[in-house]
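Students often ask why inverse folding is considered easier than folding. One informal answer: many sequences map to the same fold, so there is more than one right answer. In these notes we will look at a single instance of the problem. The structure comes first.
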């Protein structure tokens, strides 16, 4: 009986150490990469990339590339912004355990429409 109990304990320990029992294996994080350009396909250096709700951030390099590593598996919203461009948002970025996800983005030039109206009157009428 004692030999059987010892064998069972040793087997259970081996299963836990090897990660065979569900829930004991380590969860591996994923990575999100991408390339950011404007509408003319010119690269956007220095664009801000943010992953929500995790709050992880990155900045595009000289080639418009970014990498966010160490992302826990799940669903995220990826937001990209650059001065003078409309913000890009992808509301459904899925990351799997150990997975690599590529999200390329094209930012559009932000259009500002301002109307300035100038009125003037002479103080004493026509001169």
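Output (designed amino acids):
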């Amino acid at each position: 009986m004692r030999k059987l109990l010892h064998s069972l304990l040793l087997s259970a320990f081996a299963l836990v150490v090897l990660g065979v029992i569900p829930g004991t294996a380590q969860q591996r994080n994923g990575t999100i990469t991408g390339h950011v350009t404007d509408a003319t396909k010119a690269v956007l250096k220095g664009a801000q990339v943010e992953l929500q709700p995790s709050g992880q951030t990155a900045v595009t390099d000289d080639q418009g590339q970014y990498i966010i590593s160490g992302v826990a598996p799940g669903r995220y919203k990826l937001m990209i912004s650059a001065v003078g461009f409309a913000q890009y948002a992808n509301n459904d970025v899925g990351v799997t355990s150990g997975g690599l996800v590529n999200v390329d983005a094209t930012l559009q030039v932000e259009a500002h429409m301002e109307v300035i109206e100038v009125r003037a009157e002479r103080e004493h009428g026509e001169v």
